[in-house]
Amino acid sequence: MCNEFGGELKDAKGCPESMLREAAQYGVCKINIDSDLRLAMTGVIRKQFAEDPSNFDPRKYLSPARDAIYGMVKHKILNVLGSNQK
Question: Is 6 inside a domain boundary?
Answer without folding.
Answer: no
